[in-house]
Amino acid sequence: MRPEDRQINRVRARRFLWFAWLVLVALALVWARARVPDQAPPTREAFEERHRLCYDIYAAADNGAAYDLLASAFAGKELDHQYCVFAKAESQLAQALANVTVWDLQYQDFKVLAARGNSCTIYSKWMVTYILGHSQHSHVRVNAYEVVFELSKGPDGWRIVSSRILNENNLA
C-alpha cells in the first residue's frame, strides 16, 4: 500500500470516529431530555382518596359537576369513557324514576404493579354499597370490583388514564 493511501485511510478513519462520536453525543442529549425521572407512585391513601371522588357523581347537582368530579380522578380517553358510562347510567335512572345513593365504599387491596417515569400500574380491589331507590321503595346493593389501573402524573397530580376490570360481582 502506498504511503498516500495510508494517509487517506487514516484521515477517513479519523473522520468516521469524529462523526460516530458526534452521533453518540447527540443521541445521549436526546435521551437525556426525553427521559422522565421516576416519580414515586401514589400511596394507597392518596389513590383511594382520589378514586373515592368518582362515587360522588351520583350526588352531583348536574352533569357538569359530575364531569368535574370525574376529571379529578381520570384523564384523556378514560375520562371520556367514564363520563359516557355515567351519562348512560344517569339516563337510565331518570327514565326509571330511580336514584342511587352511595352508602359505603371499602377498599380491600392495593398494589403498585409497576412504576416508571411519570406512569404506574396499580391493582385495586373494593366493594361499594349503595341504595337504589325507585317506585316508592329501595334496595341495598353491594358490588365488588377488582381492577388494574394505568395512571399518569401530570401538573395536577396522578390521574387514571386507563382501566381494565378483572372481576366485577353483584354481591347483594
Low-confidence stretches: none
Shape designation: elongated
Rg over CA atoms, rounded to whole Å, is: 27 Å
What structural class do helix, strand and pairing data support? alpha+beta
Order of helices and strands: HHHHEEEE
Mean pLDDT: 90
Total DSSP E strands: 4
Q: Biggest sheet, open or closed, and with what strands and sense?
A: 4 strands, antiparallel
Distance between the termini: 90 Å
Query: Can you give the helix content as a percent range?
Result: 40-55%
Q: In order across it, which strands form the biggest sheet? A: 1-2-3-4
Number of helices: 4
- Work out the strand percent: 35-45%
Please provide a written account of the structure:
With 172 residues, the protein is an alpha+beta fold. It contains 4 helices and 4 strands; from the N terminus they run ααααββββ. The chain has helices spanning 3-34, 44-52, 63-71, 76-95, and strands at residues 98-116, 119-134, 137-154, 157-170. α3 (63-71) packs antiparallel against α4. The longest helix is centred in the first third of the chain and has 32 residues, at 3-34. The mean pLDDT is 90.
